[in-house]
Amino acid sequence: MIQLALFYEEKELLYLKEIAEREEVSEKYLTQIVIPLKAKGLITSRRGSGGGYRLSRHPSQIKAREVVEALEGSILPVDCLEGNTFCKRAPFCVARKVWQRVRGKIIEALEEFTLEDLAKMGKENRPMEYSI
After folding, report:
1. What is the pLDDT of residues 13-57, one digit of tens each?
2. Is residue 103 assigned to a domain?
């Protein structure tokens, strides 16, 4: 997603092969990752010659939380925080209260960053041999 953000203005579409090379991951792995990202409407794709992937919105409009939730599901450090599946101890469970707070802080942190922010940070921190 950060690669797509880096090239959002410059290139219409990126091939998975390009992204895989830049991120040093397998193209096969990326093939699996794009499925939930596309399903959540975070990326679009075009098949065939001249095809590839791009962000569906400007990088400044996509929060890190959206990406994490698309790939990982709900942000739940423990199962008892999900819906009404908690146990009878929930109303007085101290551990559950701690996990609720931890979840809140994780969400708060992920909401602070957009893909644009992460792309800028990546550009600034990237060693020369990994320059785009």
Report:
1. 999 999 999 899 999 999 999 999 999 999 999 988 778 999 999
2. yes
Give the three-state DSSP class for 53: strand
108 shares a domain with 118: no
- Residue 4 token pair: 């797509």
Report yes or no on 68 lying in a domain: no
Whether 52 and 96 map to the same domain: the answer is no
Pairwise CA distance, residues 4 & 8, whole Å: 6
DSSP string, 2-52: HHHHHTTTT-S-B-HHHHHHHHT--HHHHHHHHHHHHHTTSEEEE-STT-E
Residue range(s) defining the domain that contains residue 94 = 77-112
Q: Which two tokens stand for residue 106?
A: 């994780």
Measuring CA to CA, which residue among 40, 44, 20, 45 is closest to residue 30? Answer: 20
**Total length of the chain:** 132
Q: What is the pTM of this model?
A: 0.84
